[in-house]
Amino acid sequence: MSDLAGCPLCEGDGGALVWRGERLRVIHADEPGFPAFHRLIWNAHVAEFSDLTEADREHCMQAVALVEQVLREQLEPDKVNLASLGNVVPHLHWHVVARHTWDSHWPAPLWAAAQRPRDAEREDGLAARLPQLHQALRERLQHWARPFTQ
Amino acid sequence: MSDLAGCPLCEGDGGALVWRGERLRVIHADEPGFPAFHRLIWNAHVAEFSDLTEADREHCMQAVALVEQVLREQLEPDKVNLASLGNVVPHLHWHVVARHTWDSHWPAPLWAAAQRPRDAEREDGLAARLPQLHQALRERLQHWARPFTQ
């Protein structure tokens, strides 16, 4: 793994760690208004998705799809948003965000202007499901990763 | 392919067609301020990335990475942004956008508020390179897709 001095995703987890594998980790992000905001972070410092080898890209997107699938099963979102931007922190990370029609920004991207006030009650309801979600994510990611670590 | 009545990405190309394969197509989007905005659109109507089979997900992301790579080679962007949102049009499509430090929104996401006025001269300079970019995209995507159509 290549660490880059000064890169916040090399020097720290980048959020509340949910699961760490050899090549990538999943964190829960503290993003107001979006209780089910997660990031999948490639452990090594690479800037662009196409900097990865094809094998690593497949590994990465298998994990992205798995996180998305578990979010869908556990939270029944109206949509999942995936994004790899990295303009501010050019260390490969995928935003994986469960979106709901009641959220403050729906149907706009979460980076756009809010469409309505936040719904604290529904946000709290979603947040209450995070422990079970994170347990499910750990189990599924660990099961998925097992063949790579043998 | 399953078409959905009323879905703009089932009923049309969704932009200026650059290349069409059996499973996906690449279009150039007319998005003011971002001359190098492309979308990779899955031809069949599926909403979420994890609705695809693993083989189709790999196929999809091979193409996303290839489009990103050609954009990097041809346009030397400061960053490429990838996103699959679909809140408004829930038909799987990937935004693949070449970002530059001079663009109106840098380093914010392109859906956020602008950070500065648009630079018409540099936008025009980027737009002038699109014919060559699109030719390169067609050649590379066609070469990549050949094994799948034999």
From TrEMBL, chains A, B:
Gene3D superfamilies in the record: HIT-like (3.30.428.10)
Pfam hit, one: HIT
Short sequence motif named Histidine triad motif, residue ranges: 91-95
Annotated ranges, domain HIT: 5-106
Molecular-function annotations in GO: catalytic activity
Domain of life: Bacteria
InterPro entries for this protein: HIT-like (IPR011146), HIT-like_sf (IPR036265), HIT_Hint (IPR026026)
Designated name of the protein: HIT domain-containing protein
Source organism of the structure: Melaminivora suipulveris
